[in-house]
Amino acid sequence: MSGRRRRTALELAALALLAYVPALTAAPGRVPADTKLYLYLDPGRQLADALWSFDTRQFAGWVPHQIIGYLWPSGPWYWLFDRLGVPDWIAHRLWLGTILLAAGAGVRWAARRLDLTPTAALTAAVVYQLSPYVLAYVSRTSVLLLPWAALGWLVGLTVGAATRTRWRDAAFFALVVATVGGINATALLMIAPVPLLWLVDAAARGAITWRRAGRTVVTLGGLSLGVSLWWMTALAIQARHGAAALSFSETLEAVSSTAVSSEVLRGLGYWLFYVGDPVTAATTASRAYQEQPALLATGFALVLAGVAGLVLVRWAHRRFAALCLAAGVVLAVGAYPIDDPSPLGAALADSSRSTLVLALRSSTRAVPMVVFALALGAGALVTAAGRLRPRVGVAAAVALVVVAALNLPPAWTGGFVDPDLDRPQALPSWWLDAAADLDAAPGDGRVLQVPGMEFSTYRWGHTVDPLLPGISERPLLTRDLLPLGSPAAMDTLYALDDRFQEGVAEADAVAPVARLLGADTVLVAPEVAFERYRTPRPEPTWQRFAEGVDGLGEPVTYGPPAPNLAPTDPPAAAMVDEAAVALDRDGRLGAAVPPLALLPVEDPRPSCTSAVGPSCWPGAATAWSTPPATLIDGHETIRCGRHRGPRCRRGRRRPRGGHRRQPPAPAGGGAARTCGGSPRTPTTRPCSRRPADHRLEVFPRRAGGEPDDRRAGGPAAGHRQRLRGAGRLPARVARRDGRGRRPGHGWVPTGPTPRRTDPGGRR
Q1: How many Å apart are CA 97 and CA 591, to the nearest integer?
Q2: Residue partners of 655: CB distance under 8 A and separation at least 6
Q3: For residue 578, with 0-12 CB atoms within 10 Å meaning exposed, 13-18 middle and 19 or more buried, which class applies?
């Protein structure tokens, strides 16, 4: 082996040690809630589901959002290790270490193509690989680190494609894009300016012609577009037929609130690095970076070294690195501060509800451009020091590597896996037993889980995603972070669950709604860590079901009963509220509850005929779960009367100042909801300016602004059937109001409605 190859092998081995050792030594036996739970529980089925544009296992049927991205590379990775029998936690650590190694090796290779010395290139690679940018992603969404890991490779391949006539570099560039862009297009688009900036700089300084630069842009862009059609097609289908996921997730105001330029320069600024719930921060390591002077010093020392290299060192590619730094800071800061943005940020703030702005709102995903530029600047500084004296260059490289290592303490203290986002390798036996019983039971109806959780967290660990779809063949219907099913079905589900969350639920309403939604089993999980996201306390919830519920069979419990008490450290987790005081007064606080229970639904309906149609009466879904008990029993045929707009029921126009429209109910179609602890984006037609105002569009609008009940129903509208049942809605659902008039919308019973007289003498 030649000396050059031996040195390359040693440098890659050093980068591998810095990548795999911190990953493999972090929390052995613990699996983080990273990316997607089902990649660990059943990667084969996750791969099979990714091929289809409609999924019946969750949300009463939905068009998945970017699930196709798991076809490559994360799905095959976990499937292979599952086939080999490798424990999930080791598969995850190897995945994480490989991402880190790819990032460092790519920057080292790009730095060599950008004319840095071998020592300087290795220094730049270490500074980039050990950036604290990774901390907010490694335990939550590590797949979003793929564009960060690919940045160096894309730059090096761009240099090769522009300076050589062979197609090999362009082909490899397209393969890298296909590998890293399938899950999240924003993360890829935010680093896309880097290759363009190199081409512009190279053409400006005469290294290549402008014609060659334009041809390279067309070649790389065309190939990248071609290899991205597989996930772009699925995304277009979801946008056309699925839920408006962007309209229900975080607002531009929330995402941009932490994108401060000083944090961006340190490789931070991502909003989930700073927020938290009442128990802990969303990223446990974040507090140290805000409070410890040592970490503030190391972070800004690396910034100063990178800037010094770009300012003081004469280097052919210095302008390119400076452009990357400037563009990265501008893009990452984005609309911050939202109330007084820059001219560029003002355009985003003024259109903060548009689909394009919502798609690109996570501006801090441009931070890799900043880290890359500063890493190249640090390498240039080492190169300049080596010109003075070789030993000085080596000393400068060692000093920068040490500072970069000190700037990432979680890598050396076992904190790469967030302790508040993990679970044990082996799932509790009671969940596996319950899943086995569900699969063995006759029928294929859905499982309705109440109360729901926007993030699944239990006393034994944190899974984020609902657990049941990964261990059972039965479809699950429960409240999740976002209402991704059809608006009418989600409106019905949330109306029932909201009352549990508010502590005023009528348990007798569960069975009718379960029948309406095609569920034949109700799942209750009293073992939830209720204090984390302020979900209902387990003692009163379980008591409602244990005492017997009309329409539900006897509960079958799983696991040993035990008290479910919130920890008192930190004090905010104790969740001492009016419910706790009432339970303590009655002696029920800390009563033993089972971890899990299944309750059969009596006389269930098949799920294939239970697609919920449009909710034609604002607030109708809420009325189903309103005392006394419920207005339906789940067997009715529900039809929708056409909304008549400004006309009266008999076709006459309303006199000016005459009939008034019924005011919207507090929940149901078009009602405001807050779907999480963080501010959520309203739909494109909010009735309130509050960022957390979140509305389900049960009635899509016509051009004139009136609801169109013919198109309601969401992603499965083309396959929806009207509910078929033997009974009719009680007449009181469509009865006249207090002035003898019917509401503008109403649930209309099938068949002839018998005449009846109310106590006031009106029919």
Answers
A1: 45
A2: none
A3: exposed
- Structure token digits, residue 540: 């009163």
Question: 384-390 long-range contacts, Cβ below 8 Å, gap at least 24?
Answer: 384/309, 384/312, 384/313, 386/117, 386/119, 386/120
Contacts of 586 (CB under 8 A, 6+ apart): none
Joined together, the tokens standing for residue 611 give 């697609």
- List, as one string, the DSSP characters of 129-142: HT-GGGGGTTTT-G
Given a contact cutoff of 8 angstroms between Cβ atoms, the answer to whether 97 and 130 are in contact is no
Alpha helices in 587-659 (DSSP H): 620-624
- In 441-537, which ranges are continuous DSSP H helix? 487-501, 510-516, 530-533
CA triple 17-18-22, angle to 5 deg: 95
| Of residues 671, 364, 263, 368, the one with CA closest to residue 494 | 671
Confidence of residue 611 (pLDDT cuts 50, 70, 90): very low
d(CA 736, CA 761): 12
CA–CA separation, 512 vs 518, rounded Å? 10
Per-residue pLDDT, averaged over 419-445, amounts to 94
Edge-to-edge strands, sheet with 519-524: 476-478, 446-449, 519-524, 596-600, 556-558
Pairing verdict, β 519-524 and 596-600: antiparallel
Q: How many helices (H) and strands (E) does the chain have?
A: 29, 15
Spatial separation of the C-alpha atoms in residues 58 and 485, rounded to whole Å: 8
In the numeric block, which tokens belong to residue 213? 């630069």
| Ramachandran bin of 629, using left for φ above 0, alpha for ψ from -120 to 50, beta for the remaining angles | left
In this structure, are residues 539 and 582 in contact, taking their beta carbons and an 8 Å threshold? no
Helix (H) or strand (E) holding 594: none
Between 180-184, 561-565, 728-732, the lowest mean confidence (pLDDT) is in: 728-732
What pTM value is reported for the model?
0.85
At 308, list the tokens: 């010094």
**pLDDT bucket at 635, cuts 50 / 70 / 90:** confident
pLDDT > 60? residue 407: yes
| Cβ 222 vs Cβ 651: under 8 Å | no
* Per-residue CA distances from 138 to 126, 132, 288, 682 (Å): 18, 10, 17, 29
Q: Is 698 left (phi over 0), alpha (psi -120 to 50) or beta?
A: alpha
Residue 498 CA to residue 696 CA, distance in Å, equals 14
Instruction: Please report which residue ranges of 206-266 form alpha helices under DSSP H.
Output: 210-241, 245-248, 252-256, 261-265
Q: Apex CA 50: angle with CA 82 and CA 455, to 5°?
A: 80
Query: In this structure, are strands 596-600 and 556-558 parallel, antiparallel, or unpaired?
Result: antiparallel
Please name every residue paired with 424 in a beta bridge, in sequence order, or none if there are none. Answer: 30
- Beta-bridged to residue 592, according to DSSP, are 563
